Amino acid sequence: MNTDRPPLVRISGVTKNFKRGSEEVHVLAGLDLDVPEAEFLALMGPSGSGKSTLLNLIGGLDRPTRGSVQIGGDRVDELSDRQLAAWRARHIGFVFQFYNLLPALTAERNIELPLLLTGLNKARRKQQVAAALEAVGLAHRARHFPRTLSGGEQQRVGIARAIVTDPTVLLCDEPTGDLDRKSGDEILALLQSLNQRHGKTIIMVTHDPHASARASRTVYLDKGQLSNTPVA
Amino acid sequence: MKYLPLALAGLRRRKLRTALTFLSVLVAFVLFAFLGAIKQAFLAGVELAGQDRLITRHKVSLIQTLPESYKARIANIPGVGAVCHFTWFGGIYQDPKNFFATMPVEPEAFLDMFPEYVVKEGERKAWLATRTGAIVGRSTAERFQWKIGDRVPLQSPIWGQPAGAAQWEFEIVGIYDGAKKGTDTTGFYFRYDYFEEARQREKGQVGWYSVRISDPNEAARIAEKVDAEFANSPYETKTEPEGAFAAGFAQQVGDIATIVMAVVGAVFFTILLVSGNTMAQSVRERVTELGVLKALGFTNGLVLVLVLVESCLVVTLGGLAGLGLAWLIITAGNPVPSLLPVFYLPNTTLVTGAAMALALGIAAGALPAVQAMRLHIAVALRKGG
Ligand SMILES: Nc1ncnc2c1ncn2[C@@H]1O[C@H](COP(=O)(O)OP(=O)(O)O)[C@@H](O)[C@H]1O
Ligand SMILES: [Mg+2]
Question: Which of these, A144, A222, B190, B350, is most buried using a 10 Å CB contact count?
Fold first, then answer.
C-alpha cells in the first residue's frame, strides 16, 4: 500500500449523539477509521451499535456531532446541504438492505435515476444504464418492474443503480440481510468482483460472518468504538 | 423534462386515487365553466347595451303599457335622434316550453335603431312588403329548423288570438344574425301594423320605447326631460339607459354574479382540500422513496419541485380537461335557449379557469412539497428499514 498518499476515507475523532426526547444517546464516541482506495471493508457489530449511523456519516447523509469526515480530500462534514447533495451524486453509491427501488419505475428507469442529475443526454444515459445492467447480469430484465423481480434480482438492480455513475465509494448497508443464502452469495460475489476487477472501494455493513469473509478487512463496532477483533 | 417520468411514476403508484382526484377536479371545472357561461348569459344584455340608447317605460312597471302617441312627443324632445317601440307578445310555438322573445315592432324604425341585428337587404325589403312577415334570430330559426318562406303559427298568453282567427300566423321573411359574439339571436319580430289591427284589446298601447340620443353624455339630462314631458299624466314614464334597464332585468333574477362566485368559491375550496389530501397521503406513503432520491443526490429543492409538478399534473391537467370538456358541451348547443338567449363560454372564464387550475395545483401540492423538502434523509431511510 502506498503510504505517501492519504487514505481515500479518513474519519477522525467522530462523535455522534442523537437526542431522544430529553435524553442524549451516544452512538459513536470519537472513533477513527482509515479506508484506503480499492479496499473492501466489512463493518460488523451488534444491532443498534451504530453501523448504519457511521455509514450515513461517510455517505454524507448526516453530519457528525464532532470530528471530521474526509473523503478523497473533501471535508464532507463541512459541506452545505446543497453541496452535499451534489457531492453524493458524484462520489457515493448506496446499496440498501431492502433495495429501496421505486416500485412504479422499471429496472432501467430506477438505474437511470442518479444519471438524471448529471448532464448526460438521453442516449448516453441509456448506454450507461445498459452497461450497469450488463455488469450485474440483468440485461434481460431491463423493462421489468421491481415487484416482478426476485429479491436477489432487485438487489442487483440496486447495485446497478449504485454503480451506474461510477462513484468513488460504494456503501452497502446489510446488502444480503433480506436474502436467502444462495442469492446472498451471488450478491457478495458481485460486490467482490466489483472490488477486485474494477478496483471499487466498498464499505459494507453486515451481520453475517459469511459476508465479511469476502471482504479484504473487517472492523468491529461496539460501544461507540472500532476494533480489529470481534468483541467477546 | 427528464424528470417527468418520475413525477408520473408517483401518480401511477395509486392509479385509482389519482383517477378519482383527476375526475373530481375535472367535474369542478366543468361546473365552473358552466357557471361562467350562465353568468355571462345574464350579463350579456348589460355589456352589449347601446351607449346611445335609452329605454322609456311605464313608471310603475314594465308590464304596464304606454300610449303609442308618445312616440311623436318623445321624438320632438331636443337631443333625441330616433324612437321606436316594442310590445311584449310572449310568443309560444306549439308548446309552452318553446318560448322565445316575440315582439311587434315597426320594421324600419326597429332595424335603424338596432344595427347589431344584421338582416340582408332583400329580406329587409321582403319584410316591408309582407304584412304578416316576421324576422327571426339565427339561433331560434335553427332551434325549430325554420326557413325563409315558412308559415309559423304562434300563441300569445297575453293577447289571445287575433280577430277572426284561431291563432297568430306569421311568415318568416328574414333571418337575422348578431353583429357581435354576445348578440341575442333568439328574438322574433313581426309588424306592429298587423298586430295593431288584429289584436282585440288595448289598441293604441305599446310596451316601451327605445330612444336614441345624439350625445351619450347627455343621457341623464335627456332622460329627465322625457319623464318631465309625461309627468302628471295618466301614464307617467321612467327613462334610463339601456344598460341599466338590462341590469335591472338581471337583478330581478337575483344577484347572479354573487351567487355564482359563492358556488365557485365553495367548489374550489373543496377541490383544494380533496387534492391537497391526496398529495399529502401520497407523500406520507413515500417517505422512504423520497429519502432514497435524496440519498442519490436529489437536492431538497428538486424534491420540492417534483411533488409540485406531480400535484399540477393531476389538478392543473384535470382543470384544463374540465374546461375543455365544458367548452365542447357549450359549443355544441344551448341546453335552455328559452331561459338564456345568449349562451357561450366567455374567454375571460377560460383564462381565469386556466389560472385557477394552475394556482390550485400549486396550492394543493405546497404543503406536502414543503414536507418532502424538509424530510431528513437518515430519518426517512430508517422508516423503511
Ligand atoms: N435519527 C435518529 N434519532 C434518534 N436515534 C437514532 C437515530 N438514528 C439512529 N439512532 C439510534 O442510534 C443507535 C444506532 O443505530 P444504527 O446506526 O441504526 O444501528 P445499527 O445499524 O448498528 O443497527 C440506535 O440506538 C438507534 O436507535
Ligand atoms: Mg443498521
Answer: B190
| Chain B stretch 268-307, residues whose beta carbon is closer than 8 A to a beta carbon of chain A | 288-289, 292-301
ipTM, 2 decimals? 0.94
Q: Which residue of B has its CA nearest to A56?
A: B378
Mutating which of B3, B377, B382, B383 best tests the A interface, going by the most A Cβ atoms within 10 A? B377
B17 touches chain A (CB under 8 A): no
Give the pTM.
0.75
Whether A98 sits inside 8 A of B6 (CB atoms) is: no
User: B349 CB contacts (<8 Å, ≥6 apart)?
Assistant: B32, B33, B36, B37, B40
Q: Identify the structural domains of chain A with CATH numbers, from first to last.
A: 37-63+82-227 (3.40.50.300)
Burial of B293 (0-12, 13-18, 19+ CB in 10 A): buried
Cell representation of residue B58: 311605464
Instruction: Give the ranges where A47-150 is alpha helix by DSSP (H).
Output: 51-58, 81-91, 107-116, 122-135
Give the side-chain half-sphere CA count within 13 A for B355.
6
Query: For residue A131, what is its C-alpha cell?
Result: 452497461
The span from the CA of A110 to the CA of B291, in Å, is 14
Query: Are A64 and A226 within 8 A, CB to CB?
Result: no
Mean pLDDT, residues B339-353 taken together: 83
Using alpha carbons, list the distances in angstroms from residue B239 to B62, B208, B209, B212, B224: 11, 10, 9, 12, 7
Pairing of strands B188-191, B208-213: unpaired
Distance (angstroms) between ligand 2 centre and the Cα of A165 equals 25
Between residues 168 and 187 of chain A, which touch chain B (CB distance below 8 Å)? 173
**Chains A, B: CB contacts under 8 A, how many?**
77
What does DSSP assign to residue B155?
B
Q: Which parts of chain A have pLDDT scores under 70?
A: 1-4, 231-232
Looking at the DSSP assignment, which residues form a beta bridge with residue A12?
A: A68
